[in-house]
Amino acid sequence: MGSPGFQCRRAEPFLSLSCENLDSVLGSNSRLPDRVENVNERNRNAKPVPVVDPVAAAYANEFNEMVEGLPAFRPTIGCIVPAYNEADSIGGVLDSLLAQTRLPDVIHVVVNNTTDDTVKIASEYAGPHEVVTDGVMQFTEVFVHDIGVNPDKKVGALNYGYSLIEGCDFLLGVDGDTTASANAVEQLEAEIASDTRIGGISAIYSIDDTVIDGLMPQFLIAGQRAQFAAFNMQNMLRGRNMAVLGGQFSIFSMKALREVMIDSHQATPWVKDSEVEDSLLSLQIKSAGYLTKISAQARANVGGMTTLRGLDAQQVKWNFGAIELMWPGQRGDTKGQPFHPNLRLRWIENFSMVINVLTRVMFFILLFASLSINAFVFSPIWLIPPFIAIFLNLRTALSMKTRTWKDIIFAVGFLPAELYMWVRIGHFVRAWTKFASNKQVDNWAEQAKAERGSGNAYLVPLLVALAAAAAMVFVWLQLPVVVQSTILWIGWPILGVTTVIQTLTMFVTLTKRHRGYRV
């Protein structure tokens, strides 16, 4: 690896030197060969053939070898791995980083608030590492830092790591449960170094489902894989503009981070005020005039949630943080930025979830109400939306580079995807309810508690739905038949129009070209 501060253009090799230029190369005292005169009359006006002096040729070769031996410029990459209770995965993460075709120049594992053997396992990798890739020797060094109790949690670990690599050109952020393909760092570096306008690039995220056992974990992982795939494809089709540079495996320009700190009057790149530190930093990078992109090739597998409790806590935290960024005004110390370009996709997602809630809830209410008074008449036209949804889910599954038979079954089975949508609706409703309550909640702590198997908040949407259904059934049965008929007469057309709009939207999405992208 060459010195990062030196860059040199490679000299063009000397092929020959004319006699007229040899004096300037060898000095005026050098012996020059005599010109050979051609006595042939036909060639008297031809240009003389230069004769290369052996001394000059040797000098040229020596100079070329010296230039080729000069160190080439290579930007430096500092890697930060914030880790909290990652004993089960930290070894795999470090193995993945040390197996990269382009090693980070330094790797800092920053362990915080841990209660397991994360430090012990990570320490086995501490020290210098030399790796030979395609005949080229690469060097990196792993440092493990146990910063103990850290009230700022992941944000505090990231900022601590940033202070250790301030002299690097790029920062690679890797979560303590994320592994990447062998050439991911090389691909991210090539992409971000190719355009100075890019402030950060995120890898294409998915979840490895080959090590998941159990019906419920497999169902939840299949849903998360489909969710990641749809989100990744949306961003790719938007010019590869990434709304959120997920901290799982992303590379950042240190220059962009420094400008964010200046523009936002921050002492560190990440701030603790937001529930979604990566989303806020992505907005700030965009506001500083840089691009936030998703990679076209680099891939990484993140840690998925295998329990309803854990998935609920994670998704509620993400949704709640996104709402804080979207909503106008001030909520804590996070400034609402409703019209920020990086939040357009967030608004679309939330509006789409509102439509999903509305159509599904109305359908079940109207179906029950119609059956209760023998007024339901089946029409095959109602089968169109589910079939469009199946085709859309199947196309998403087929766009996955690492798809398995589980992804296909999840898509074409309809019921698994529909059940997972109801799970997501519960997260969506819980997040907005939390936000509307204006109650300060540490969602990081809630997620940590859920991952330990504590808490039953994930059951709240189900219990509320059952209570609301019971109340509506009671009220419905008390209404006169005329009122019931009037409600059905108004309700079904409203649901029909909403469903038509939703189906047309799905159909347009289904017909969009993927331009060869794989997620």
Provide an overview of this structure.
The structure is a single chain. With 519 residues, the protein is of the alpha/beta class. It folds into two domains: 78-305, Spore Coat Polysaccharide Biosynthesis Protein SpsA, Chain A; 343-511, no CATH class. It is built from 17 helices and eleven strands. The chain has helices at residues 19-26, 54-68, 90-98, 118-123, 153-164, 184-193, 215-236, 254-263, 277-287, 308-326, 344-372, 384-398, 405-412, 415-437, 443-451, 460-478, 481-511, and strands at residues 77-83, 106-111, 127-133, 136-146, 170-174, 179-180, 198-206, 249-253, 291-301, 330-331, 334-335. The strands form two sheets. It has a nine-stranded mixed sheet. It has a two-stranded antiparallel sheet with strand order 10-11. Mean pLDDT is 85; it is low at 1-39. Pfam families: Glycos_transf_2.
